[in-house]
Specification:
The protein is α+β, with helices and mostly antiparallel strands and 342 residues long. The protein has 3 domains: 163 residues; 49 residues, SH3 type barrels (Roll), CATH 2.30.30; 87 residues, Alpha-Beta Plaits (2-Layer Sandwich), CATH 3.30.70. It has 9 helices and 8 strands. Helix 3 runs antiparallel to helix 4.
């Protein structure tokens, strides 16, 4: 008779599982579908199967409680049901973690420090591993194993692994620093002590930089986190600086006109910053009259910068030519004095 009661109770709990799935879960799903966020839908979907499994295990627990089995069957059955109960609980927590990661990512993005998918997945995997380890030790303890000795052995193994993987740990923490401080992003032109070029990928272990020679350099994130990084892409404008040398037969009036017209040309140029333009007759060189040119382009992109620089230089050539002057080049004058030869 007790077996019939146990089977009836288990069947009743199993039926309640079906009812809960088709009524309560469906009702909550409809409510979640009306919200603007899909996070609640993901959490609900994540815990649905573990919840159903938990209800079934609960039914098995009450059914087994009605029928008293002697040892060793009772011991094995009770511990097995409790182990399945712990599996259901930790399974539910494990599945709910992934949707909750979106909350962390979304929250940090509000402050301009969004976590990358790599960092989010890394943190998620660490937490999942901890949940798995706690569940495993809980089940072992349920079966009567000595957890203290097990943890002590894990501590020794962990110390050995930590020593062997110290570089890996350094790179992982370097990744956290890079993703939180954002000294550079994918597509930025950076210069470090190890490489200079365009950032292609930022991984958990290393950052890949494409050099201007088209070589791909992998720099460990631990090294990047402890080195100075020059980010050229973050420039608001880009400097152009050079000297031009004119021949010494350029008169004062022409020199003044050339300086004035170069300044005027740069001030009218749509791609040149108007705030900082310095054009001056700067020095009497060994073989030239030097004009100092210093200004900034609005674009920091390499191709656009070179195009604007080239355009301004062509215009300077036209200005020099229109004022009947020429560009000087290094030269030497030799004077031969006529005299009586003994």
């Amino acid at each position: 008779m007790l077996y019939i009661y146990a089977i009836f109770l288990f069947a009743l709990v199993w039926l309640s599982k079906i009812i809960i799935r088709r009524t309560i879960f469906d009702f909550i799903s409809k409510l979640a579908g009306k919200t603007s966020s899909d996070l609640d839908d993901k959490v609900l979907e994540a815990i649905k199967r573990p919840t159903e499994f938990l209800i079934a295990v609960t039914g098995a627990y009450f059914a087994a409680d009605i029928v008293s089995f002697g040892d060793p069957v009772g011991f094995i059955l009770d511990n097995s049901i409790m182990s399945l109960f712990y599996v259901a609980i930790f399974w539910m927590i494990y599945n709910a973690l992934e949707p909750m990661t979106y909350i962390v990512v979304g929250y940090t993005k509000m402050f301009g420090k969004g976590l990358s998918d790599d960092i989010a997945n890394f943190v998620l995997n660490i937490i999942k591993f901890l949940i798995f380890a706690i569940a495993f030790m809980t089940i072992l303890q349920e079966w009567g194993y000595n957890i203290g000795g097990f943890l002590a052995s894990l501590g020794l193994v962990g110390m050995a692994l930590a020593f062997a993987a110290r570089d890996t740990v350094s790179n992982l923490f370097g990744s956290v620093v890079i993703f939180s401080d954002k000294p550079f992003e994918i597509g930025d032109w950076i210069k470090t002590t190890d490489a200079e070029g365009i950032v292609e990928t930022i991984g958990m272990r290393s950052t890949k930089i494409r050099t201007f020679a088209n070589a791909l350099v992998s720099v460990p994130n631990g090294s990047l986190a402890h080195s100075s990084i020059l980010n050229w892409t973050k420039m608001g404008k880009r400097r152009v600086k050079f000297d031009i040398g004119l021949t010494y037969d350029t008169d004062e009036k022409s020199m003044k006109n050339i300086v004035k017209q170069i300044k005027s040309m740069l001030n009218k140029h749509k791609d040149i910053h108007k705030d900082t333009i310095h054009i001056y007759f700067s020095a009497f060189g060994d073989s030239s009259l030097n004009i100092f040119c210093y200004y900034f382009t609005k674009s920091t992109a390499w191709d656009e910068f070179m195009r604007v620089r080239e355009d301004t230089m062509f215009k300077i050539m036209q200005i020099v030519k229109s004022n009947n002057s020429n560009f000087a080049f290094p030269s030497s004058s030799i004077y031969i004095e006529k005299g009586q030869v003994d």
